Amino acid sequence: MNSHPYLRAFLAGVFVPTLVLPVLLVVFIIVRLVLKEPVPIERGIVFPMALVPVVWALWNMLWLRSNVRTRLSLGFHGALLPLLLLPAGAVLATSLGILQLGGSGVTWFQTFFVPYVAIAPVFLAVLAGYYLVWKHVVGFVNRTLGIA
Length: 148
Fold this sequence. Notes:
The chain is mainly alpha-helical and about 150 residues long. The chain has one domain. It contains four helices and three strands. Strands 1-2-3 form a three-stranded antiparallel sheet. The radius of gyration is 17 Å and the shape is globular.
């Protein structure tokens, strides 16, 4: 099965976020409608739901293309993705008025203040999570589709 490896890499990359994002949407809908939180969550969820699966798919295609030269493990390659997504998401959220950067932390939706000290360990946990998901789940799908 050597035909269309990039198409298979795209499908393998899009697999995980396509399964996870609807679950997150359900959680956000419950928070907004059932728990009556006055946070305009829909302003911050629509764009990432459209963009993140494509970014994951393109990132997997990039791994397939560059793996011959770099020999980077899939898990490490996947753990690099938040280093691109975080700044891009922060710029987008700031320009849309969802996020405000302050001297000691960030404010989400003009409601929730999160100090930078709390963001650092969460970001490290996200890096570890991305590493594990890319190594095990995306790697499994890549092997199943015959591209790993």
